[in-house]
Automatic annotation (TrEMBL):
Gene behind the chain: Ganab
Domain Glycoside hydrolase family 31 TIM barrel: 261-380, 432-579
Annotated segments matching region Disordered: 63-120, 695-714
CDD domains for the chain: GH31_GANC_GANAB_alpha, GH31_N
Family membership noted in the UniProt record: Belongs to the glycosyl hydrolase 31 family.
Source species of the chain: Rhodinocichla rosea
Presence of keyword DNA-binding: no
Every Glycoside hydrolase family 31 N-terminal domain range: 17-194
Name of this chain's protein: GANAB glucosidase
Family annotation (InterPro entries): Gal_mutarotase_sf_dom, GH, Glyco_hydro_31_C, Glyco_hydro_31_N_dom, Glyco_hydro_31_TIM, Glyco_hydro_b
GO CC annotation terms, alphabetical: glucosidase II complex
Coiled coil: none
A GO BP entry: carbohydrate metabolic process
Length: 745
């Protein structure tokens, strides 16, 4: 992925205290005001964004205590930010009331000599005490978006796709936490943090002067969104991505942090997991159940109980005495296994991984230089440090003892801690003293993926799933929404959560089908399979205290519905794989909001119960209990959509009431302007058969808008496992066009 082009800035105007700069070929201009400091970004005469318009810029400089041996320049303490802090120790973003603060965001009452206050040099929460040797070091900045009414992004939150105003409440927090059975529709932090937001405009023709007048008078018809970013530490490092279209924005962001890794094809199939399949006999019985009930399956998972006393990268000798034979039996049926491994390492002198970490000094350190230790599933544990680099000990995490290289993938979990707290003190010894809390999981994800690549001699694409993430995690594998609950709210929230992930670049995402906690009823389980089949990562997973829920334990009627959902997923695998290729090359989400393809349709801006897969399918899962019908909005002036099951055609835009039964999945093919879109489909039911004898059908609408009887689409194919597509150009990418009764390729 090439680095983003940097446009040349040229001075095109000058006034007292203000510079006007041209910004690239798109007609953008930047007005830089000296006092009070402010940036205004315009396109032609349209004001797009103002920076520090409300004077909330703050940058607290490092300093020493008054009683320290060496005096250093002081800056105002963070009293204004202390008031903004809630119970979570984290940065945040939100909308806040109008402010009368002065230049540079410094509150007027703090402009003089700073006073010492409680919490300025250390903070205590329960048993944790974090020292702040340089005092408060918070940073913050505000952005004003006239003409913009909708803001999205900043995952991970169990929240609607369109972010809600936070004025008068808590901000959206961005601080990686392990949250047990999380709540929905709340701004609290979850497992990952991604400081990336997208705004959609509702344009009103208006000059810059008119917008500024509306802003100063606090009125007018132009909608406006205020965004304020705050962080307890760090630097102000902001990228404004100019688009102009939604796909342009995500592509530009992909050039900054990388695009989604092209996953191995098997990982787009169905995954069966629970905490835990007990032993080799249990694994064999589950795998045999999928064969006997003719259910497609590509991956079986083992949770942490497979290891010997939670000593990860080992096997329990009583439960799994012959792991190589178990894996080879799966491989003979073209199936794979994934082991779940946590990054905390059991402190045990007889455990090789622990001994090597300690001997090489690669554990995370306390501020005093000692190995940091905690308590979780293995008992006493330490965290492998990442300053050893990707070739350090974390690089070995891809090597799993006794595992044939093409069979085993890996997943990353975390250790439990209560919400609203740090899992560890903030002043641990990462990277020579830099706080690494949110970044830690990015580096574990990276090291695990690189370890798998090294294990195969650089030939094979890795599969690594991580629950926690940070900007850039998309380069190394997949993520999921964490420890959800078997209820309808968590089924519904999985859609906007995955859409939000996709906007930030994490295209390979999904939710635990059926819910991790508690037990779903048959209707909920069926509906979750139907919804999960149309999310990028498709895995059923469950807590060890839940009842077993393999599909054949359902009634024959419900089992048939699950089988139909699984087979539909496999029939559409060529469409999924092609969509991931587009994502990998262009940075566009696989699962995307309607407004990405229809940015001129305001009705799509707040929708998060239906979405698009690539530009081929519109999906509206049924997420209400006892549903007898759903309202489906078909976007796009003049577009024609057709029901995939009945092939009935409907001209957009319109809201269509669609009767449903429990067997209804709910998705539509689209015309996409120039004619019908052709989605490639497997004619085989399982991935292993389709790879052995590839045959594809192209699904085209029976008729299309002007020009009549036309359709187009594309298909991407490679070997599904290696990097040969990149290193040897070993791939096939075909564009299909159907017109006047003739198919061309």
């Amino acid at each position: 992925v090439p680095n983003p082009a940097v446009p040349r800035l040229e001075v095109t105007g000058r006034d007292e205290g203000t510079l006007e700069l041209s910004l690239g070929p798109g007609g953008h201009r930047l007005l830089v005001t000296e006092h009070p400091f402010r940036l205004d970004l315009l396109q032609h005469r349209e004001l797009l964004c103002s920076v520090n318009a409300r004077g909330l810029l703050v940058f607290e400089h490092q300093r020493r205590r008054r009683d320290s041996p060496t005096e250093a320049p002081r800056s105002p303490p963070g009293r204004w930010l202390q008031r903004e802090r809630g119970r979570q120790r984290s940065g945040g973003v939100g909308g806040v009331p109008q402010s009368t603060q002065g230049v540079g965001g410094r509150p007027p009452e703090l402009r003089g000599e700073p006073e010492e206050e409680q919490g300025a040099w250390e903070e205590t929460f329960k048993t944790h005490t974090d020292s702040k040797p340089y005092g408060p070091t918070s940073v913050g900045l505000d952005f004003s978006l006239p003409g913009f009414e909708h803001v999205y992004g900043i995952p991970e939150h169990a929240e609607s796709l369109r972010l809600r105003p936070t004025e008068g409440g808590d901000p959206y927090r961005l601080y990686n936490l392990d949250v047990f059975q999380y709540e929905v529709f709340t701004p609290m932090a979850l497992y990952g943090s991604w400081e990336f937001g997208v705004a959609d405009p509702l344009y009103h023709p208006q000059t810059l002067f008119g917008k500024l007048l509306d802003y100063m008078q606090g009125g007018g018809e132009t909608p406006q969104t205020e965004v304020r970013w705050m962080s307890e530490s760090g630097v102000i490092d902001v990228f404004l991505l100019l688009g102009p279209g939604p796909a342009d924005v995500t592509a530009q962001y992909g050039r900054l942090t990388g695009t989604q890794a092209l996953p191995p094809l098997f990982s787009l199939g169905y995954h069966q997991s629970r905490w835990n399949y007990q032993d080799e006999a249990d694994v064999e019985a589950v795998e045999r159940g999928f064969e006997e009930h003719e259910l497609p399956l590509d991956v079986l998972w083992l949770d942490i109980e497979h290891a010997d006393g939670k000593r990860y990268f080992t096997w329990d000798p009583a439960k799994f005495p012959n792991p190589r034979g178990m894996l080879e039996r799966l491989a003979a049926r073209k199936r794979r296994m994934v082991s779940i491994v946590d990054p905390h390492i059991k402190v045990d002198g007889g455990y090789r991984v622990h001994a090597e970490l300690r001997a090489r000094g690669l554990y995370v350190k306390t501020k005093d230089g000692n190995d940091y230790e905690g308590w979780c599933w293995p008992g006493q544990w330490g965290w492998g440090g990442t300053w050893g680099g990707p070739r350090g000990v974390l690089g070995d995490f891809g090597k799993v003892l006794g595992a044939p290289e093409r069979i085993l993938g890996q997943s990353r979990g975390a250790c439990g801690s209560p919400p609203n707290t740090s899992e560890t003190p903030l002043n641990l010894g990462h990277f020579g003293g830099w706080e690494l809390h949110n970044l830690y999981r990015l580096y574990v994800h990276k090291a695990t993926a690189e370890g798998q690549i090294r294990r195969s001699g650089g030939r094979l694409r890795p599969f690594v799933l991580s629950r926690a993430f940070f900007a850039g995690s998309q380069r190394y594998g997949a993520v999921w929404t964490g420890d959800n609950t078997a209820d309808w709210e968590h089924l519904r929230i999985s859609i906007p959560m995955c859409l939000s992930f996709g906007l930030a670049g994490l295209a390979f995402c999904g939710a635990d089908v059926g819910g991790f906690f508690q037990n779903p009823g048959p209707e909920l389980q069926v509906r979750w399979y139907q919804a999960g089949a149309f999310q990028p990562f498709f895995r059923a997973h469950a807590h060890l205290d839940t009842a077993r829920r393999e599909p054949w334990l359902l009634s024959p009627e419900h089992l048939a519905m699950v089988r139909a959902a699984l087979r539909r997923r496999y029939a559409l695998l060529p469409t999924w794989y092609t969509a991931f290729y587009h994502c990998h090359r262009q940075g566009v989400p696989v699962m995307r909001p309607l407004w990405m393809e229809f940015p001129d349709d305001p009705q799509t801006f707040a929708m998060d119960d239906q979405y698009l897969i690539d530009w081929v399918l519109l999906v509206h899962p049924v997420t209400e209990p006892g549903a007898r019908g759903v309202n489906v909005y078909l976007p796009g002036e003049g577009e024609v959509w057709y029901n995939d099951e009945t092939h009935e055609q409907h001209r957009a835009p319109q809201t269509l009431y669609v009767p449903v039964t429990l067997s209804t999945v709910g998705f539509w093919g689209g015309s996409r302007g120039l004619g019908g879109m052709m989605g490639p489909q497997n004619t085989r039911e399982t991935l292993k058969l389709s790879l052995q004898t590839p045959k594809f059908s192209l699904d085209t609408p029976k008729s299309s808008p002007d020009p009549p009887g036309t359709a187009q689409g594309d298909l991407y194919l490679d070997d599904g496992v290696s990097f040969d597509y990149a290193t040897k150009n070993a791939f096939l990418h075909r564009h299909f066009s159907f017109a006047n009764g003739t198919l061309t390729s």
